[in-house]
Design goal:
By secondary structure, the protein is of the alpha/beta class. The protein is built from five helices and seven strands, in the order αβαβββαβααββ. GO terms for molecular function: methyltransferase activity.
């Protein structure tokens, strides 16, 4: 199955989502936008697992927008993030298990600072040594960067690291990033 969706019930996917939400909450980011609830985008949302984790931690204090190339649920918006980004603005954008499948990460990272000030991204980093070239090919990943290489890409695209943690037995990096080029205006959908 494409994008490893056949393994989306694995504990590692749940751990990654929970770790990401915990990082988001622990850093007490000021998301005051005079519009309540906050807007959260989930790029590459798959089965919208992140939404249930967010509900468990935040209740209904947010509006959730799930985006995926191959929507699994009716509530998910179909989008090809390789060539387009949503026209809405968000308080935070989650990209969990997505970057490994984006062929031109620099192009993607250059576009996204237009839609939010904060991003929470995951990436299975090469530093862990957990995956061989054969594993990477089997998973359909398009690249396998080191932590330092990926952080350089973030920085080159005006995404400043606020926090970094490892999860999933130190195989996956989680980055909380901020864009200083974002100017908030809300497009009402």
């Amino acid at each position: 199955m494409r994008f490893n969706c056949d393994s989306q019930s694995a504990a590692s996917w749940q751990i990654r989502a929970e770790s990401a939400v915990e990082m988001f909450i622990a850093n007490d980011i000021s998301l005051t936008n005079n519009i309540n609830p906050i807007r959260i985008a989930d790029f590459g949302c798959g089965n919208e697992r992140l939404k249930s984790v967010l509900i468990g931690k935040l209740g209904n204090q947010f509006d959730y927008y799930g985006y995926d190339l191959e929507p699994q649920l009716e509530s998910t918006y179909k989008i090809n993030l390789e060539s387009e980004i949503p026209s809405l603005n968000f308080d935070i954008v989650f990209c969990l298990g997505l970057l490994e499948y984006i062929s031109d990460i620099d192009n993607f990272l250059a576009k996204i600072p237009q839609i939010s000030n904060f991003y929470l991204m995951s990436y299975v980093i090469r530093d862990s040594g957990a995956y061989s070239p054969a594993d990477i090919l089997q998973k359909g990943w398009l690249h396998h960067y080191s932590c330092q290489e990926l952080e350089r890409k973030f920085k080159n695209n005006d995404l400043i690291k606020i926090k970094f943690n490892l999860t999933n037995k130190d195989k996956t990096g989680l980055w909380l990033l901020q864009s200083h080029s974002f100017t908030k205006t809300y497009n009402i959908q």
